[in-house]
């Protein structure tokens, strides 16, 4: 049993992704190699789209969180599926623009946007800018005045919800670098100021409580808190909030023991809270946004490596070293994130040994994973690490001056390059 539905074993005993032989992909494109299954990406987009339309009608939209995995081809795919985009930097904005993405469907995030980024967002006319702090509001008001434009804004709000996730990926509690706090009155005072601004229009509110969350209860509680705040704004300031972004963070299956709720269950349960609270509070139902990223991209991706050294330390552990590293798979050293791995050219064999997969960087902590149950692996074997479609390419680096891997998309047995493998000349391109 595999953690992602697009993985299988063919007649050669090799692992396949989207019907494409992973061993053949490694031979054709080299390793390390990121592989993304276009059909599963599209399927996930459609599931989110269908469910938000089912429960919110024409008053809901899915925005893909580009930080999970962004390149021009990904922007083209999600755009063709009718999704919007949440971008968090000028680089993500520029990527979307160059891909031909509809900028009116972009929300621009970031806890410390530069003036350059704000000017660019205003110039290209993004759908809305999610303002994170009061100084950003002041700078944006000035920039918008200079540009002669009046952008829509949302305020990012900390709803004070415990998301039961890793401390590094909790974002909704009061002690967070993101957003305005409700408990202190900070958010209320910011709204009071925003509605007096001449050059920006307060369109909506946004919250995001964390990442890789399996429990739906925190999402329901966050929706209640945000709608209560919208009611307070209406009753006390006579101002109607039109949009509410309830964020993302939906957990996915990295290991077989993980059991995330289907997207549709989340959507139904939270929509019931939205409907009932709006009726109870006597407020108009706002236009609802959600921003899945990992849950669209992660299951669709794998990373392929070639085994080099095998090092057995008696009574301690066995290291299987691969040609990748924390430079292309940083989530283990950051969060101790666990993955399933498979010896791709022995996928039909039994898993017989517990190993640690080691990267090639000069860091003791450079591991792909520890205590991983694998088929017996020797030099030259191909290892596939599953569900790596989110946050690996996005957070990859040139540490140790390693070249970033290529990204290949597969579609019904065919493959194509979406991002070229970096060359040695790319490594020194900006050196003087």
Describe this structure in words.
With 432 residues, this protein is an alpha/beta fold. Helix content is 31%, strand content 24%. The strands form 3 sheets. Strands 4, 14, 15, 16, 17, 18, 19, 20 and 21 form a 9-stranded mixed sheet that branches. Strands 5-6-7-8-9-11-12-13 form an 8-stranded parallel barrel, surrounded by 5 helices. A hairpin with an 8-residue loop joins strand 17 and strand 18. The chain is globular.
Which key features would you list for this structure?
12 helices, 21 strands, 31% helix, 24% strand, alpha/beta, 432 residues
Strand content: 15-25%
Distance between the termini: 51 Å
What's the Cα radius of gyration? 23 Å
Largest sheet: 9 strands, mixed
Structural class: alpha/beta
What count of helical segments does DSSP give? 12
Summarize the structure in short.
The protein is an alpha/beta fold and 432 residues long. The protein has helices at residues 22-29, 38-56, 72-80, 90-99, 115-124, 134-147, 186-194, 217-237, 263-281, 294-297, 331-335, 424-427; strands spanning 7-9, 15-17, 20-21, 33-37, 60-65, 84-87, 106-108, 128-131, 152-158, 180-181, 201-206, 243-245, 287-290, 301-313, 317-322, 341-343, 353-358, 367-374, 382-386, 406-411, 414-419. Strands 4, 14, 15, 16, 17, 18, 19, 20 and 21 form a 9-stranded mixed beta sheet that branches. It has an 8-stranded parallel β-barrel with strand order 5-6-7-8-9-11-12-13, surrounded by 5 helices. Strands 1-2-3 form a 3-stranded antiparallel beta sheet.
């Amino acid at each position: 049993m595999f953690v992602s539905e697009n993985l299988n074993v063919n007649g050669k005993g090799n692992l396949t992704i989207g019907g494409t032989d992973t061993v053949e992909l490694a031979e054709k494109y080299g390793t390390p190699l990121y592989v993304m299954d276009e059909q599963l990406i599209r399927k996930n987009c459609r599931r989110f789209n269908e469910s938000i339309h089912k429960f919110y009608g024409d008053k809901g939209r899915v925005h893909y969180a580009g930080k999970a995995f962004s390149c021009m081809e990904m922007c083209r795919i999600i755009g063709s599926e009718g999704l919007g985009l949440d971008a968090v930097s000028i680089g993500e904005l520029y990527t979307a623009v160059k891909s031909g993405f509809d900028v009116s469907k972009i929300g621009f995030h970031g806890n410390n946007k530069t003036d350059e980024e704000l000017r660019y967002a205003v110039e290209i006319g993004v759908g809305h800018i999610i303002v994170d702090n009061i100084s950003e509001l002041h700078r944006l008001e000035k920039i918008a005045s200079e540009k002669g434009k009046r952008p829509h804004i949302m305020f990012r709000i900390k709803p004070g919800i415990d998301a039961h996730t890793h401390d590094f990926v909790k974002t909704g509690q009061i002690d967070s670098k993101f957003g305005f706090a409700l408990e202190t009155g900070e958010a209320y005072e910011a709204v009071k100021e925003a509605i007096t601004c001449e050059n920006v229009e307060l369109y909506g509110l946004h919250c995001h409580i964390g990442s890789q969350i399996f429990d739906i209860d925190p999402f329901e509680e966050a929706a209640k808190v945000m709608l209560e705040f919208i009611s307070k704004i209406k009753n006390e300031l006579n101002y109607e909030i039109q949009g509410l972004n309830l964020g993302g963070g939906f957990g996915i299956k990295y290991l077989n023991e993980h059991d995330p709720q289907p997207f549709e269950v989340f959507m139904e349960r939270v929509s019931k809270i939205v409907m009932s609270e709006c009726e109870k509070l006597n407020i108009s139902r706002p236009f609802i946004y959600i921003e899945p990223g990992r849950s669209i991209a992660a299951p669709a991706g794998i990373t392929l490596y070639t085994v080099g050294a095998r090092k057995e330390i008696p009574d301690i552990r066995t290291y299987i070293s691969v040609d990748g590293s924390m430079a292309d798979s940083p989530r283990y050293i950051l969060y101790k994130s666990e993955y399933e791995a498979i010896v791709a050219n022995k996928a039909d064999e039994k898993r017989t040994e517990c190993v640690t997969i080691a990267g090639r960087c000069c860091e003791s902590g450079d591991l792909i994973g520890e205590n991983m149950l694998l088929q017996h692996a020797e030099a030259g074997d191909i290892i596939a690490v599953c569900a790596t479609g989110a946050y690996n390419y996005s957070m990859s680096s040139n540490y140790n001056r390693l070249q970033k891997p290529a990204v290949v998309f597969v579609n019904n047995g065919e493959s194509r390059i979406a991002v070229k493998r970096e060359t040695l000349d790319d490594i020194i391109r900006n050196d003087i």
